[in-house]
Please model this.
Amino acid sequence: MRAHRLAPLAVLALLAALAGCRSSPAVAAYLGDRAITVAEVDEVVRAVNAVGDERWAARRAGGPGPQPPLVHTTAAEVVSLIVLRHVGERLLTERGLPAAPRSSDVFAAIFGLPPSDPYLRLWLDYWQVVQPIVAAHPERPPTDEEAGRFLDALVDAGQVPDGVGHDEMIADLKRYPAFGAAASAQQTLAAAASGVTINPRYGGLVLPAILSLPSGLVPIDIAFPDDGKVPVEEA
Model:
């Protein structure tokens, strides 16, 4: 009887050991057999934000001539760029979709970074595979919930004009069917992310996007609809 009861305990111990192999605190994400380390992510974040801090200081000091774009990123964005590129590559293959052209000059101008910069390369690799997936979804007006997530992303990016109310912004965003296509693409990407393991310190995935606004081309990060339902296994 004792031996019979120990068998499931041994199985549980084995499962715990296997799970431990996929939950190293030094790993930001597992993409199949490939591990993205926390150190890799932190290095990109530190480098980009150091440049952004220098540019912000120069603007405050009132330096002469045109100023380069302010740049800023988060660990969650960097992890999402890496993970969604991995997921997007698989979807392109499965659906027979061609990758988008590599727009190095455009992205270099958006961020004011050279094409060799690691952060810019992440964006280029990501955009080549995710942009065709978004474009493959039919345009439709976004729902109130979807428009709300886009509005939150604009607020975080400092792109909401003063004096414009929440309801007014939601009504305006719902006029753009491209936002509905992007929201549908999020659902597709989320479903295809099953099996990817992400360190819970980074929270849920975001969808990095570039919007054409009166202030120019602006990067934003759009949250997924419900982080608890996005099928990404926590480390």
In short: The longest helix spans residues 38-61. The mean pLDDT is 85. The CA atoms of residues 49 and 103 lie 23 Å apart. The radius of gyration is 21 Å.
